[in-house]
Amino acid sequence: MNQTSKKRAIDFRRGQVVRGKWHHHHYTIISKLGHGAIGSVYLCESNGKQMALKISEKSSSVTMEVNVLKTFQKVQGNRLGPSLLDVDDWVDPSGVQYSFYVMEYLRGKQLSTYVKSHGEEWLGILMLQLLGDLESLHQQGWVFGDLKTENLIVTYPPARMRWIDVGGTTQIGRSIKEYTEFFDRGYWNMGTRKAEPSYDLFALAMVMVHFYHPKRFERGSSPKRTLLTKLNQTTQLKKYESVLKNALTGQYQTSEQMKRDLSHVLMEKQISKENYSRKDKVNKPVSSKQPVTQKRSQMPQATQNKKSVHPILESLGITLVVMVFYLFYLFLN
Amino acid sequence: MKKGTLKQILLITDGCSNKGEDPSAVAALAAQQGITVNVIGVLEDDRSEDPMGLQEVEDIAMSGEGVSQIVYKQSLSQTVQTVTKQAMTQTLQGVVNQELKQILGSKQSLEELPPEQRGEVMEVVEDLGETCDLEVLVLVDTSASMSNKLPTVREALIDLSVSMNARIGRNRFAIYSFPGKKKAIDKVSDWASKLDSVSSVFPKLTSGGITPTGPAIKDAMYEFGKKSLKRSFMREDEPNIEEAGY
Ligand SMILES: Nc1ncnc2c1ncn2[C@@H]1O[C@H](COP(=O)(O)OP(=O)(O)O)[C@@H](O)[C@H]1O
């Protein structure tokens, strides 16, 4: 792009020291973590601590991401994105200036790698965590935007879902800044690109779909039908189908609604696992259907009830559900 | 609050112009009139393309103070719209950056400010990008070599309108094709806020080897409405920013 034609792509070597122009901190490069649309991310070390450094020739994009990270910083008990450590410029030997910021290094595995090695039951639980984080993000007035598998990292132990790349994070009511086709409801003809909570919930559902279709699939001439058919045909997603369908068709207005339905599904699996006699297994589909249909009919009512339920009680309940499941998992091992 | 209107020509082509005035010169003229010219070059996969054609794509956009990008047909469906949107965003940013340069002094650019102060400026940039009105005239090369690319171009344009219409600001899109039957350009769809009705197919492809890109851009300029030609986005919006305390 002609704006940046004078700048060359950055390629730091191991051991190279990056010194900030304004704050004079220095960072020793360890390795490259990856690169994307906006810039490159390096693992580096400063004062004995490991950190992640994102550098780009696009100063304005760096500034926009820093703005988002700064607003997250103000949220108490912040887990929304990696914490921001420094913002500065780096001048290369020929005098060209690049902007960078330094953030917390999230040491972990990518979502799909983690779930593959630790068990598929983690997928639902990690999504539950993500829904909790999205809920606080939405309450802050933001939508994540570019939610996709590659932007999700699981740090452990204990397993905790974290997100990186806030380049798509957009204030509610505006147009989504950055998105990826497969995870974008606009691409599937299933909604606008306006930043609202349901935009993220669609993408989250697609993250689950993507786990079982890592190569993705074409949208075809009637995208919506293609997607819903694929969902229906994916046997591993059967238990989540009603929840995912609600998310994909924009039935959920808040993450909380989706979180509640998803935890019901996860609990359901739990019960049927506990008494795993033959008879129960046969009964399982019936019993698992029950709460889901019940919930559907409750949906409008539930929205009204929302105010009367104490939020702390509710999150306590959900935490309990997760803990019970986690303990059960440990026990099984 | 009165907002300016951002005017852009989005040229989608696959080759080199070979008739009429130099397209870069016309693009420079358009930029003078406050119309940015962006160019997307669509290439065939396997054929090694004419490097002259590639260079021209970049040259036109540079003179037109816009953004250029080369897209391979192989990945056309995925990239055209992403690139298109990126180009729009960058152009919006570019214009607002220029505006800020006026406020900060001609020698002061955003990058020369300490990082702490850039944040606030970028917020203003983002605000304007989100709320300003946008007029995009899409100029599609319909010479013979483009024929198998046009369905994808059409899809990409519909997608572009989906993205743009999620903004708070208003949008107007028009589509013209070139070379025209009698004039330099032919109207495919008139100014409208949405492009989901581009069921109107592109006109019959011209089989001749003429690509009059320069004259096409020139005619396109006049479709923005003669009376507003000279009022640029920058000048219209400047007082607002000063009132806001910047
Ligand atoms: N804070 C971090 N901790 C660990 N790895 C990171 C961190 N930030 C980014 N990465 C790695 O770098 C890659 C690219 O970063 P990303 O922010 O997605 O770039 P872009 O915005 O340019 O697409 C990611 O896929 C991830 O592997």
Please characterize this protein's 3D structure.
- The complex is a heterodimer of chains A (333) and B (246).
- By secondary structure, chain A is of the alpha+beta class.
- Chain A has two domains: 3-104, Phosphorylase Kinase, domain 1 (2-Layer Sandwich), CATH 3.30.200; 109-258, Orthogonal Bundle (Transferase(Phosphotransferase), domain 1), CATH 1.10.510.10.
- Helices cover 44% and strands 18% of the residues of chain A.
- Chain A has helices at 59-73, 111-118, 121-139, 197-212, 223-233, 241-248, 255-274, 278-305, 311-332, and strands at 17-19, 26-35, 40-46, 49-56, 84-91, 97-104, 108-110, 142-143, 152-155, 160-163, 170-171.
- Chain A is globular, with a radius of gyration of 22 Å.
- By secondary structure, chain B is of the alpha/beta class.
- Chain B has a six-stranded mixed β-sheet, sandwiched between helices.
- In chain B, strand 1, helix 1 (23-32) and strand 2 (35-43) form a beta-alpha-beta unit.
- In chain B, helix 1 (23-32) packs parallel to helix 6.
- The two termini of chain B are 16 Å apart.
- Residues 33-39, 41, 52, 82, 103-106, 150-151, 164-165, 167 of chain A line the site of adenosine-5'-diphosphate.
